[in-house]
Input
Amino acid sequence: MKKNFFFSFVIFFGLASAQVNAVNYSLDQLEQNKRINSNLENESLDNKKFVLIKDFEDHTERHFIILKGNKATFIEIFDDKTTGESHSNVFSGDVLRTRHNMISLRFDTLEREKLSVPIVKSLLLKKQQTHIYLTDINTQERWMDENSLVMK
Output
């Protein structure tokens, strides 16, 4: 009885160990693929403008992030499709960039008036070929560099 228990114990942990090794291998492969974007520390974001456009049935939203040094501007433009009117909000704040391609934006001013609760955005800097873009960590939305957009 003890031998059966010991052999089943060894087999169980042997299979579990094999599965852990397979999972670790898969995670290592994913990390290697992510290292494509790991060396973006020298990528300058000064005077860059990033764009996000959302199209809905009744309105269109255009969002812009403009980075200048350690200052940032966030512009929201809402276009009503039924009336043709546009409304905008201009926020200003600061930027914090880490060594791991993370960018934290904190907008605490709306058109020269302090906000009681600032708007905070956490973005990940990415590059594909020659195109720079930001990915919102919470919503997975992609903010494209304005220079990367091709108008036709």
Notes: The two ends are 77 Å apart (CA to CA). The mean pLDDT is 80. The helical segments are 2-34.
